[in-house]
Amino acid sequence: MPPDNVRHHPHLFDPNAASIHDFITPRPGRGKAISLQARDRAQHAARLLGQMEDIEAMAAERIAAQKAEGVDAGNGVYLQFDSEPGFDLKFESLDFAPSGIELCSVRRSPIDRLQATVFVPDGKLSFFLNRITAYRDDDTNPKKDGSTQPKNRDLVESIADIRLAALEALWTDDPELYPVPDQDVGWEVWLRKSDKLDHLQRFREIAAAHDLTVSEESISFIDRVIVLVSGTGRNLARSTELLGAIAELRLPKTAASFFTQMNSVEQQDWVDDLAGRLLPPDAASPYVCLLDTGVNRGHTLLAPLLADADLHTYKPDWGVDDRGGHGTPMAGIAAYGDLTDALASAGQWPATHQLESVKIINDADPHDPELYGAVTSESVNRVEVNPERRRIFCMAISTPDGRDRGRPSSWSAAVDSLASGADDQVHRLVILAAGNTAPTSRGDYPNSNLTDGIHDPGQAWNALTVGGYTEKALVDQQQFPGWEALAAHSDLAPASCTSMTWKRTRWPVKPDVVFEAGNMARHADFEEPDYIDDALQLLSTPSDFARRRPLSTFGDTSAAAALAARQAAMLWAKYPNLTPEAIRALIVHSAQWTEPMLQRFTDPQGQVDYEAVMRCFGFGVPRLREVLSSADNSLTLIAQGSIKPFQKIENDVKYRELKLHALPWPKDALEALQDTQVTLRITLSYFVEPNPGDRGWATKYGYQSHGLRFAVKRASETVAGFQERINKAARDEAHDGNHTGESGMWTLGRGQTLTTVGSIHSNIWTGTAADLAARGHIAVFPTYGWWNKRPRLNAWNKTSNYALIVTIKTPETDIYTPVANIIDTPIVIET
């Protein structure tokens, strides 16, 4: 489904209680038909053929100019195809790789035209001429009812005009931001990528002759290479006419360095502008509670979101202010994200949540190490004097002591106990930073990251532990010649710890997800990398804003954890009825691995070591749009429930129940797609009650109170047969119920322990739509833990809350509407 046509909607909640239900057949959904203006066939074909004839003459002149300039390979021109205002353009059919014809960019104009820019190699204009001619002269083969239509009708009738493309046609940012032709500016240039030609090298050669400066660094993807270019639009347009290398143009992303190079007065102007655009959250909004070094709330951007009464401290004589310089920038990120984006935005800035602070660290009065768990618990109790608030606890404080190596510590167990509500039945969402590698070891990146384990208490089962990746990978070569980014774009951040040394154990996979953590740079003349370019960091609110400047850089896994807390708060603000288990589940559920993450652990045969991927990056990078919203072709269903895993029969503790979710399912829409490949993602989140200690940990199920698993009905089995299979699997941990005899393919496949460790489980199934259509039942069932292995503790009658998240994705079919109709939910279209 074209991006411009995808509608986004709120996620749907399963209204059914988790039990056995007859399946309700959903009303069929339909894919969105292409919207076409009525055409006179002969007249429309003649008009487009006339435009193509004009293009042929101009294209011949342009090709001749290219060859005169010495460009003797890859010659071609750019064409722009426009739809009628308010109508569709079948732009997928404009791309034809066998002929070297490449769709470069698609945008929507201010007058609601879809505009596609296509590179056409020399001699290949006949591709479009032939299709227009066939539309004019030929009909399709008759259908069963005898009806026919013009060949290529959808493509040709969707085209209103064809012309040689100007440079503006490659611009995919806001049209109003397009620079004037003679303005010397920076451009983010997305180059085409080819196995036959080095477009980057050829572009460098042409650019040098046209007063364009190209950055030494580039970011490479499967079919694009991105560089920064300085120069005028007029010169860039001339180079584009000579060399068909550019696929897309954007403004360079505003970096933290743009603001950090300002003086304090200039920074304050930007800060005041954002503060003037801020829309405060409502009183019932959720809170991010920072367990850190305190916060200096007098900052212009923090005061509206953090009340004096919400500043707390572990020891009264410490005060609540931030003297350690860490809590205040955490607050800025938790409130606004990377301030680079917020300051550079336009229009109102609606705040979705508020802040709280508990000062738990004071460098002048350090805690004894063994007290950290108690300090954390007590600090949580301090802030819960307002028990009615929905709050996310965010803590980036950790210890690099590696003795635990993933095993539960007193600190991590205290976090697990707080999250599970073991003492007070209050479930809490806790977000932890994975911890940072030693700065002195970063010259050995990434090897040092793979041996530096997650810092205590980041191994906590129930916490959302956040590592770091980075998209900040371009160094300003004019200011810092010879320096290059240490980490590649979309790869592991230099500071991020991993659980690679925990492999081949049953210890949880950590981190759970990764967020932006900034980057570093290196130079061949220096042994150690450095934070030399502020553009490699995030921007936030410094603690010393009153004495210096109101903006400064911030990064590493602390910033990543604060970003995760912000995302969680935004999610909770939108869906106030979610449980902490569900918030954690949706963030993990929306995460994706980037190409560099997968490539890092792919062998020469193309096999991915998913255990390594997950112990380095968790489930990947959460995508905010997917965290917050479903789409026409991407339906997310949320089920929240509880289960009593065990019961006592005479002197034995046995299993009590499984929960069967008969979900509202877009069966007819999926069946209509038949062999189309679709995906099903399922995430199950729950909290365990901890039982720490070396003796307990040595027992297979000693630490966790219980485990939960999910299983999906297969297309070929009945609901009764499914239940029978799962009941047997529930009592055998080694039984691989998700994969034995399974059709389709699970990403975390057979033999993986990754689907059973920890207290959050997520997996992706890929198969045919027809197969998925018959899979509308998902079971949640228990496995062993100390609740049933230690009956004398009388924990066997406890209940476990859980969240089950299910997402179905199709290439383009609307599967959201049928399910919304089944559960009688109004269809809301989000902007």
TrEMBL record:
GO terms for biological process: proteolysis. The active site is at 292 (charge relay system), 326 (charge relay system), 558 (charge relay system). InterPro entries: Peptidase_S8/S53_dom (IPR000209), Peptidase_S8/S53_dom_sf (IPR036852), Peptidase_S8_subtilisin-like (IPR050131), Y4bN_pept_dom (IPR034074). Residues 286-620 form the Peptidase S8/S53 domain. Keywords: Hydrolase, Protease, Serine protease. Pfam families: Peptidase_S8. It comes from the Bacteria. One of its GO terms (molecular function) is serine-type endopeptidase activity. Signal peptide: none annotated. Belongs to the peptidase S8 family. This is S8 family peptidase. It comes from Marivibrio halodurans.
